[in-house]
Write a structure and sequence with these properties.
Chain lengths: ~240, ~240
């Protein structure tokens, strides 16, 4: 039975790929993904068949993967970050019910929360919530209620998709909700182009994050009540000292 | 300047280590970690100096790393999973202020949320909260308030440290809190020994998870209101269809 390996490539740098993901790329004759990610790896594997579809054509891309696998060859379906976190793993599992003769294996990768945290220092040492600000498939009210709940119960918060051309003010809106229960001095961090050329980061208070413009290549971290800046790093202690 | 590389090894299997982590282990003459993780990698690197301290001696282990680095050699401080998620990265950054001549670099790894999700299918396709049930350094009331907030606002929930000998009933207590706002039929999953020998998993409803005994090698996933079981996999759709 041929198989689709839904594979996370990590945040961009080839070095942040797992050994398992590397083996999958070496062993699968067909590699499918969103055009941008395919271009990142094409040069390293000259003998492969590369197939891609543009952004927002995710379901088409999945069916393409199953059709290739039905021809009897293993397929690597690649995503940046972790295929299992806001990635392609779910859609492949859903569409897979129409292709019972194709196996599915999920190969995890370093997600932006892990990769970005490593750049900033150690913001995720304690309980955290990961929230996407994209309202393409989720009602904004749902996103707001999650932001409010996470802020009120002192989670460290990691924001994916904090901005786009159409949603330039979403980070400010999210910060306003968080500011209802957290101080403006709360330590925050932004990381841009994690693991890629031009990687950069900034550590700044929540009050200033509110008025900062970020782009879609940025991941945002909002500290909990104990998070501090320490020698230029964002660090959340692993517990509460008054226990 | 010599450096400490705080390095996550991933959930156990050598294949789930990143290429970057592998290079760190190859290049650092000294490798320090908790005894169990050191034993996992000792055989592959016969020429290294291996140092370890038992569990709960984390601060001693960090100081040992800085003392070795001060001798002028690079040190790999290894943890399972991701060094940046409930790992050693924070303590190294905190203690690092006493050792200004030693550099620090965090090398991210696959955390149990990513590794376990890949075994179960695709439970983390939408916003999620990661909560540790260990009350060693966190008041239980704080943990309860986070469980309640995450359950009420429909996060997928991933539980770390769901049990130990002294806390045999903590998972049941956590499920009772989640059951206040989620149905007993909510799709859940448990994964034991992720990426290691004897890896196993189970998909089961929240009502039954409540009465299940798990151990400290298990990671627990509680689906959101849309999570389903699909061909033996736990799958959360990436959005809400009524948008």
């Amino acid at each position: 039975m041929s198989k689709i390996y839904v594979t996370g490539l990590g945040p961009g740098a080839a070095d942040q790929m797992t050994v398992q993901a590397q083996k999958v790329l070496e062993q699968c004759p067909v590699i499918i993904g969103y055009t941008v990610y395919i271009d990142l790896i094409r040069g390293q594997y000259p003998d492969k068949i590369f197939l891609s579809t543009p952004m927002r054509k995710e379901a088409d891309r999945c069916r393409l993967a199953f059709e290739e696998a039905e021809k009897g060859q293993d397929v690597a379906m690649v995503c940046s970050g972790d295929a299992g976190i806001y990635g392609m793993a779910g859609l492949i599992c859903e569409i897979g019910k129409d292709y019972p003769d194709v196996g599915i294996e999920i190969v995890p990768g370093i997600t932006a929360a892990s990769g970005g945290a490593a750049v900033l220092g150690a913001p995720l040492m304690h309980d955290f919530a990961v929230i996407s600000l994209s309202d393409l498939l989720t009602p904004w009210e749902k996103i707001e209620s999650r932001l409010r709940a996470a802020a009120e119960s002192d989670f460290v918060i990691c924001l994916y998709n904090p901005s786009s051309r159409k949603r330039a003010d979403y980070l400010a809106k999210a910060c306003d909700i968080i500011l209802e229960s957290r101080g403006a001095e709360t330590v925050c961090g932004t990381v841009r182009n994690i693991g890629r050329e031009g990687e950069s980061y900034e550590i700044l208070p929540l009050g200033r994050l509110r008025d900062t413009q970020v782009d879609m290549f940025t991941t945002v971290f909002i500290g909990n009540s104990n998070t501090m800046e320490l020698n230029g790093r964002m660090v959340t202690p692993r517990g509460y000292k008054d226990v």
